[in-house]
Amino acid sequence: LKHSAWLAPAPQRLNSGLPVNIGVLFVPQQEAWVVERMGKFHRILEPGLNFLIPLLDRIRYVQSLKEIVINVPEQSAVTLDNVTLQIDGVLYLRVMDPYKASYGVEDPEYAVTQLAQTTMRSELGKLSLDRVFRERESLNASIVDAINQASDCWGIRCLRYEIKDIHVPPRVKESMQMQVEAERRKRATVLESEGTRESAINVAEGQKQAQILASEAEKTEQINKAAGSA
């Protein structure tokens, strides 16, 4: 006879999205369920089979332990040289401590997003416009360090932060393009002058070698004439 596979029932959930305590619970992989007993923190359920006391125990929070991707909305920031930029980014987070993430802050994702925005404005205020584009990677790293220092008490770790787009004002963009064109013309002029200089040096060197060869030929001819007369 074939034995049918015994499947664990999917956890029933309240309208709030939290699982209902039916005594026997199966926690999915990469999730942590925070349980309260009579309104007080009791324990954290790990993935697999778990037993609770109905009515007394309640699942208060469900924390995902997977990497979370959050889009940081576009915001304005002023650089050290008083240029206003529009900048947005992407934040990669992971819950490291389900207890702190549940009780340390009301909305962890919102709190970290706000922290990322304020940190970005603060870090951009320390850099000039040119350095913002040159030091993009170090800027991302500085934001990650600042977020992790503040979010440790929330049980969340920022894995990385990536700047998506940096928008500069139209006038500043035009001046940057003019600066690039001027730099290109300058390099072209320098290369042209260096080419002319090398060409003149080569011509002078050729004339010098020709004079040396002519002098040596004349000297050899005089020696031969003197030898013939003797």
UniProtKB/TrEMBL annotation:
This protein's UniProt keywords: Mitochondrion
Keyword Transferase: no
GO biological process, one term: mitochondrion organization
Principal place of residence: mitochondrion
GO cellular component, one term: mitochondrial inner membrane
Pfam hit, one: Band_7
Domain Band: 22-180
Subcellular location: Mitochondrion inner membrane
Topology in the lipid bilayer: Lipid-anchor
Function: Mitochondrial protein that probably regulates the biogenesis and the activity of mitochondria. Stimulates cardiolipin biosynthesis, binds cardiolipin-enriched membranes where it recruits and stabilizes some proteins including prohibitin and may therefore act in the organization of functional microdomains in mitochondrial membranes. Through regulation of the mitochondrial function may play a role into several biological processes including cell migration, cell proliferation, T-cell activation, calcium homeostasis and cellular response to stress.
Annotated PANTHER family: STOMATIN-LIKE PROTEIN 2, MITOCHONDRIAL (PTHR43327)
Recorded family membership: Belongs to the band 7/mec-2 family.
Name recorded for this polypeptide: Stomatin-like protein 2, mitochondrial
